[in-house]
Amino acid sequence: MANKFSPSINIIRDENKDFNYILTPNSEKIAGQIGHDFKKGMHAFTMIGSYGTGKSSFVLELDKSIRGKGKLPIDLGFKPKKVQTLRIVGQYQSLIQYMHDLLDIKEDFEGNQKIFDALFELAGSSDLLLIYIDEFGKFLEYASKNNPDKELYFLQQLAEFVSTDSQNILLLTTLHQSFEGYSAQIANDVQKREWRKVKGRFQELTFNEPVEQLLYLASQKLGGKSKGNHNFSKLAKAKHILPFDMEEVEKVEASLSPLDIISAAVLTKALQDYGQNERSLFTFLESELTQTDWVDVAAVYDYLLNSFYSLLQSPYSNKHYKNWEAFRDAEERCELMPTKQIECAKRIVKTISLLQVFSAKSSQVDQEFLRTYLSKTYKSAEIDKATEGLIQKKIIKFTKFDQSFKILQGTDVDFDLELTQAEEAVDRNFDVVSNLKEHFDFPVLQAKAVSYKRGTPRLFAFEISNTPNEALVPTGAIDGYINLIFSDDLNIDELKEISSNSEEAVLYGYFSNSKAIKDYLYEIRKTKKVLNDNQDDHVAKREFERIIQANEKLLSHEVIGSLYSEKVRWFYAGSERDSIKSAKELNAVLSEICDSKYNAAPVFNNELLNKHKISTSIHTARKNFFKHLTENWQEEDFGFEQDKFPPEKTIYKSLIADNGMHVLENGSWELVPPSARNGFDQIWKVCEEFLASASEEKRSILDLYEILQNKPFKLKQGLIDFWVPLFLFAKRGDFALYEDGRFTPQINDAVLYIITRQPKLFEVKAFAISGIRLKVFNRYREFLQQDNLQKLDNSGFIESVRPFLVFYKNLDSYAKKTMRLSKEALDLRGAIVKAQDPEQTFFQDIPNALQMNLNELGNSDDALASFAVKLNEAIDEIKNAYAELLNRIEIYLTKEVIGKKSEFPDYKKILVKRYAGIKEHKLLPKQKVFAARINSPLNDRDSWLASIGQALLSKPLNTIDDSEEGILLDKLSHMVKELDNLQTLHKLKAEDGDQLIKLDITNEAGLVSTNVRIPKDKIQKVDSEAAEIEKILGKNKNLRLAILSRLLSKT
């Protein structure tokens, strides 16, 4: 009996079945790879291929070939005489349990040791043990859902066991998808990592047959059964029908009969989508259809519809469902044709239908193709007449843009008429550039050669315009532009001139096919207009959308496809370049431009920071780097630990150490200018020039950023944010730093970080101090008892300015705000308070405060000496302002209160004695406090006077304003008078209930004092008569006082 093809192979059931296995290059390659890897010690394999590719058949054939009876070229490095085989077909269960049942193991030890003991025994009793696990995915699917840790560990054990060098075991498993694909249900990340680890124990083999391979298999099986002449290879080539290279396929074309090369290609492509590859192919090859003379595309159409009807009917399973719906509708509508044309029309429709789905995208299924392909069945006139009828019935349509017939569903829309009429509504004069931007999103290109050579990624952006863009200036991450110009009337000479005048990295590309591009854009605009007018007709809508897509592809071909052709003329630096024929050539030109424009850029291969935007982790590393720089710059390697390598240490090594900027000099580590090795010396030089330019007036650090961001450096922002702070810290002694106008005496890590965040807030002023300024400055230093300097630097400035700032800070509140100072002292204090620029403070503000100027000081040594004296006097005056306040209070107290000149503590004793008779329990709270302060045990004048002042004003004396000094003295005088009066009253003896009043009236005759006693029994009468008199006196305060004072003076 002849060998028969089986649509499905089971490696256990069909172990001894005789079937005709056809060798393919793919199967030979897989067998060779297994033999090669086995000899190298890899014994566990996983073969992955989709359904129906022949994996099971391959396993059986491999088994035969290892035994020397098969066709596969397998060489394991030895020829086994005795071979043991375990054949397993996957089931949804535990592989461990399956092995227990297979090997008759009742109770196993922990770790499945009995399974491996049994396998070891089998291997030891033979030259080679073969273990085949077909449908391995079923075991994996079970493992992913049921105790995956245990099942995976067993798979790992099994793979490691079979790969032991001391025994010859080959494990081959088959899967329909990748090993990891079965772990999709696992949410645990740890288990997923274990899954990947186990996968690595198996060598993966890809077992998917390409279309060409399936055609080869078909040719082997058919062997040219039909002798008819069906050679359509030339036609297929001319019309670009086949979606693959025909070179190999042409060799087997004759053996494909009764299939022709076109129908065979369509069949195999369709079986890949609808069937199971080889399995479905061989089912077809065993069908009676192959006994006919010719199986054309229409016959394949009928076969597919009959064999896969359920699948083709399903909108869920069939990705071409809409197409087949239209195909069947078109076939049915052929019945509307004249009877004699129906058969031919259906043949045409079926042929167009399948080629519409399974031919190459560039195929041309036109009238010539149909005449040639169907010529053995119909005359050209018959084909033409049927085609014309199909067009009239709107069953098919010929589309000009791809020169092909297409199947149409029913619609009343006349496509050609609609598009023709739209030409009147759509203006041909439109902006090409804005329309192109809707269709293309050009990528940013990296100039690879220069990026690799210097380490800085150089990026070019595309800019499209209808005239050369003269305003293009690369900024930020972009280092250059490719200006693509689309114009029908561009003046080439003007383009050359613009290119010549441009100082930026801009490459101009002029599309000479701009008219064709505009035409395609017009067709798209026109079709969109018609599409918008036919939204309710779904068939027409779908067809117009397809026309738009086709035109968009043609547009892309004219734009993107022309980029590396003669259609684009390139210009740079005033000259036209040779045409660029590839992306590689364009990239080389971009690198050449960068080498020219950014020739001073350093070589710096650190991708962590040599970029426009650094990562979050490098932001953190930058902070740490600044901390090490500012605190550990005098230590080796900035104090980084030898055995640890954080990102900031890597930055130190690449930016500082590799450029020779941190060296050991005289026993200490110093920051020095970079060496010339990598080109950082050029950046250092321009930074020093920037500082030198700031000697006359301040310059913003933002200016330095802009210098480094532009030609000829164009450093990346990530590098600039490290370099500028590094340079400023290394040169910190040569300039003064200002933040928002305020002098910053110390540059620490926090200051450096803020500079990178807001460089516009910071300014520098370089020191250019010599001659008279240096002499004046040294006078300051003499005054401060500091050594003279030969050269002024930031540390000298800080050393000298600090005592002035400390002096002001230590002043009491009164001294900081009193205006009872000389003009010189007030102006000096103001100069210190407002000091933001040390240079201006020392050489302008302080001399002006002392009524002097720099020129005057420069012309006379006497003036310099006088300056020092005045400075000292003004400082002393400010410092002693509070002491002078106490002196004034003391003078008032002795002169106005006590009435005679005396010293402390004499006047204190006088007051204590004066008020010794006061009865404290009869005093008001304020009087009681004042009396207590007079009697306080304080023995130093300043503290005693301050306590008196605080008792009167309820605030510390050294915090009062000038206006409160008069108030203090008035309150002092008034309080003393009150105590004097109370002293007199307290000496009088009053009966219980009597009221005592002391009256002092002063008039022209002098002071008249009277003591009034109101007896207890008269108080009520006095109150009553006082009320009557109060009514008579009225409400005028001054009048009432005048009347009462007159009456009192007469008593």
Structure description:
- The chain is elongated, with a radius of gyration of 52 Å.
- The chain has seven domains: 25-206, Rossmann fold, CATH 3.40.50.300; 211-308 and 316-410, no CATH class; 432-597, no CATH class; 616-766, no CATH class; 772-879, no CATH class; 891-987, no CATH class; 995-1051, no CATH class.
- The N and C termini lie far apart (164 Å).
- The chain is α/β, with parallel strands linked by helices and 1051 residues long.
- Helices cover 52% and strands 10% of the residues.
SSE layout and pairing:
Layout: H1 25-39, E1 44-48, H2 55-66, E2 83-89, H3 95-102, H4 113-124, E3 128-134, H5 136-145, H6 148-162, E4 169-175, H7 189-199, E5 203-206, H8 211-222, H9 233-238, H10 261-274, H11 278-285, H12 297-307, H13 309-313, H14 321-333, H15 339-358, H16 367-373, H17 380-392, E6 396-399, E7 404-407, H18 415-425, H19 432-439, E8 445-446, H20 448-454, E9 459-465, E10 480-486, H21 492-501, E11 506-511, H22 514-533, H23 538-559, E12 568-572, E13 575-577, H24 583-597, H25 616-632, H26 647-656, E14 662-665, E15 668-671, H27 680-692, E16 699-700, H28 701-709, H29 717-730, E17 735-739, E18 742-744, H30 749-757, E19 762-766, H31 772-783, H32 794-810, H33 813-817, H34 823-833, H35 838-849, H36 854-859, H37 861-879, H38 881-898, H39 906-914, H40 925-934, H41 941-953, H42 963-987, E20 995-1003, E21 1006-1014, H43 1019-1033, H44 1037-1050
Parallel strand pairs: 1-4, 1-5, 2-3, 3-4, 9-10, 10-11
Antiparallel strand pairs: 6-7, 8-9, 11-12, 12-13, 14-15, 16-19, 17-18, 17-19, 20-21
Helix pairs in contact: 5-6, 6-7, 8-10, 8-11, 10-12, 12-15, 14-15, 15-17, 16-17, 18-22, 20-24, 22-23, 25-26, 25-29, 25-30, 27-28, 29-30, 31-37, 34-35, 34-37, 38-42, 40-41
